[in-house]
Amino acid sequence: MSKPPITEADLQAYVDAALPEARYGEVEDYLAAHPEEAERVHAYQAQKQALRALFNPILDEPLPENLRALASPPPIAGVDRPPRPFLARWSLERIAAGVVIAVFSSVAGWMAHGQYQPAESMARAPLLPRQAAVAHVVFSPDVRRPVEISAEHEDQLVAWLSKRLGTPVHPPKLGALGYELIGGRLLPGNSGPVAQFMYHDATGQRLTLYVSTENTANHDTAFRFAQEGPVNVFYWIDGKFGYALSAGIDKGELARVASAVYDQIEHK
After folding, report:
1. Adjacent-strand bridge partners of 238
2. Which residues have a Cβ under 8 Å from the Cβ of 37 and sit 6 or more positions away?
3. What is the tens place of the pLDDT at every residue in 173-217?
4. More confident of the two residues 166 and 217
5. What is the CATH number of the domain that holds 147?
6. What is the C-alpha separation between 57 and 29, in angstroms, rounded?
């Protein structure tokens, strides 16, 4: 009997470590014979690991009051409820936090994270670098379609993003630093659209510039650094824009590129 063909479901199960044991060898043989598919699968695995590194700390945060209230039904008059054992309370909070992480690990849900973080956590972690880092982790490993419009159509990309953001927006030129534009895409923000430009160097290392217009109320223009899991981020506010440059490279190298981006924006 011939072996069943390797499907996309098999590849996704391989990434999630959810394949039946007997199927692993068949998938690995398939990947060895299809280098492009192997590269795509390895990119997905790297993306998954990076998302875990970004969001695993949320497991140790207190459960927000709105979720805690949902987990504890209101008392019924005349009915005494015995207190839940400590283990049950702890397990419920861990499970609820795990569900939140699963939601944030999807492209559609990652922007909602800031709305459910406790206030003290929001003070520790500004939203702009966290959103930029997650967007970087989600899209930069993509082999087949890391951007929506490529650099070959930069004029169209600029016109489209400028129209959607309601203001002119241009990708900085980073060729002198060894980084060439791959292209860009439109992302959902908390209250409107966000632009992401992606670059790479000769080794394939990618960095992304996240451009938001949701920071108009923030007048702190300081140049700041944040580390979000495996991703380093330099971010700042300039007028109506918030900028965040993200990459999994050394802080010093990223600072060099971020300074060049900052200078271009300041003198545009």
Report:
1. 241
2. 11, 30, 31
3. 999 999 999 999 999 887 788 999 999 999 999 999 999 987 656
4. 166
5. 3.30.200.100
6. 36
* CA 105 – CA 109 distance, rounded (Å): 7
Q: Where among 70, 90, 114 does a domain terminate?
A: 114
- Return left, alpha or beta for 201; rule: phi > 0 is left, psi -120 to 50 is alpha, else beta: beta
**Judgement on whether residues 98 and 214 belong to the same structural domain of the protein:** no
Amino acid at 232: N
Q: Which residues contact 190 (CB under 8 A, 6 or more apart)?
A: 111, 114, 115, 127, 214
Torsion on CA atoms 10, 15, 21, 25, rounded to nearest 10:
80
Would residue 13 count as lying in a domain? yes
In terms of domains, do 34 and 61 share one?
A: yes
Question: Vertex 267, ends 261 and 268: CA angle to 5°?
Answer: 85
- Looking at the fold, whether 138 and 249 belong to one and the same domain comes out as yes
Give the total number of structural domains in the chain: 2
Query: What angle do the packed helices 35-55 and 8-15 form, to 10 degrees?
Result: 40
DSSP 16: T
The domain of 202 spans: 126-266
Of 201, 265, 58, 122, residue with least CA distance to 244: 265
Asked whether residue 189 is assigned to any structural domain, the reply reads yes
Mean pLDDT of the chain: 76
Dist CA 214 CA 167 (whole Å): 12
To the question of pTM greater than 0.85 for the whole model, the response is no
Is the same domain home to 74 and 30? yes
Give the pLDDT score at 107. Answer: 38
